[in-house]
Design a protein that fits this description.
By secondary structure, the protein is α/β, with parallel strands linked by helices. The chain has 2 domains: 186 residues, nicotinate phosphoribosyltransferase (Alpha-Beta Barrel), CATH 3.20.140; 122 residues, Aldolase class I (TIM Barrel, Alpha-Beta Barrel). Strands 13-12-1-5-3-17-18 form a 7-stranded antiparallel sheet. It has a 6-stranded parallel sheet with strand order 7-6-11-10-9-8. It has a 3-stranded antiparallel sheet with strand order 15-14-16, with no helix packed on it. The N and C termini lie far apart (62 Å). The model has no long low-confidence stretch (mean pLDDT 95).
């Protein structure tokens, strides 16, 4: 009997673990090497750029990469998750090549996509360092990777996220209150009924943040929400589309003026709807928080490659790549340096590659909050998007 196709186009966890989530030419490589009875001991490095170029990106996805390697007889070293890099290896693997050859596709996918998302999230964090910023982009990506998006956003220091299932995977609670659909279900002119029903229905632990731009202008709906919920109103969210937004900064200031005039300056104003770092910089002094969607979730993956740099103890590399086992360093002034392992590093330089897997076992713990602290400190140190 032919097995029924899966309900969704999702590659399963078992396929990833077993090395079947691979490109076909790796299967051909494994077949050929086994036929030739050849399985050299190699050192392979994952890099985006060979030399530092000043364009820093944030490393994420390492927890999944470590879990993948942990089933195989290899040793691996890596930068700590939440470290900024602009050249040289972020991960180094040592072992028999056939032990991990088929893992390259999934391994690079884990690191490339998560690091791209984390880098974009860090851009937003740096654009509004003193304001709450939440990841609202789960709707823009395949649901199977929602947890990756949300965890990567947290690694970059964002304050929360919207995906319920993503939160279940990473052990964090999702944030969010109401969409325009709720207001529309109550009908035009009945926004008060929607806000009141929400207040009556949801747990007390959920902030009373009213969406205030569905049918009328932002100021009108904000005033009406404040009158409807009174002291129970914690905040309002403005999610006006760009085509109707006009001078958004002026709108936000007008909303705050009207609240203050009614002795409700305690009501927070949150902004969302197609926002990116430039918007956050322009609005951060007038907003209490932001929801950022596509800029984070739709980020381009970092273009990592995995290259063999030593075979049976001898230097090796393809054209255009640098042979030899490398070390990377961070200097006190924020410089990123690459050199050969065993040679002297830059004066005062801190070696960044640390043990990740030994004999197929993960030897490092992963803490999202610690990674976020590292990312923010490293961003300050190297001057990442300092504006």
């Amino acid at each position: 009997m032919t097995a029924s196709p899966p309900d969704f186009d999702v590659v399963g966890t078992d396929a990833v673990r077993d090395g079947r989530a691979t490109d076909a030419y790796f299967d051909r490589t494994v077949e050929t090497l086994r036929h030739a009875d050849r399985d050299p001991r190699v050192v392979a490095e994952v890099t985006a750029d060979q030399f530092p170029d000043g364009e820093f990106e944030l490393l994420a996805g390492l927890k999944d990469a470590a879990a993948l390697l942990s089933r195989y007889n290899v040793d691996a070293d890596a930068l700590p998750e939440g470290t900024l890099f602009d050249g040289g290896p972020v991960l180094r693997i040592e072992g028999r090549y056939l032990e991990f050859a088929a893992l390259e596709t999934a391994l690079l996918g884990f690191l490339s996509h998560a690091s791209g998302v984390a880098t974009a999230a860090l851009e937003c964090r740096r654009a509004a360092p003193a304001t709450d910023v939440l990841s609202f982009g789960a709707r823009h990506v395949h649901p199977s990777i929602a947890a990756m998006v949300e965890r990567s956003a947290l690694v970059a220091g964002l304050d929360g996220f919207s995906s319920v299932s993503g939160g279940e995977v990473i052990g964090r609670e999702a944030s969010g209150t109401m969409p325009h659909a709720l207001l529309i279900c109550f009908g035009r002119g009945n926004q008060e009924d929607a806000w009141r029903a929400f207040d009556e229905a949801v747990p007390e632990s959920v902030p009373r943040i009213a969406l205030c731009d569905t049918y009328s202008d932002e100021v009108d709906e904000t005033v009406r929400a404040a009158e409807t919920l009174g002291d129970r109103l914690d905040g309002v969210r403005l999610d006006t589309t760009g085509s109707r937004r006009g001078d958004f900064r002026h709108i936000v200031r007008e909303v705050q003026w009207e609240l203050d005039a009614r002795d409700r300056a305690d009501v927070d104003v949150f902004l969302s709807g197609g926002l990116g770092p430039a918007d956050l910089r322009r609005l951060r002094d007038v907003a209490d928080g932001f929801g950022v969607g596509g800029h984070v979730s739709n980020a381009d993956p970092v273009d990592f490659a995995l290259d063999i740099v030593a075979v049976d103890g001898e230097l090796a590399a393809k054209r255009g790549k640098i042979p030899g086992i490398k070390e990377v360093y961070r200097t006190a002034e924020g410089g990123h340096h690459v050199g050969l392992r065993g040679r002297d590093g830059p004066e005062g330089g801190e070696a960044l590659l640390e043990p990740l897997v030994r004999d197929g076992e993960v030897v490092r713990e992963f803490d999202v909050d610690a990674s976020a602290e590292r990312a923010l400190a490293d961003a300050e140190r190297v001057g990442f998007r300092a504006e």
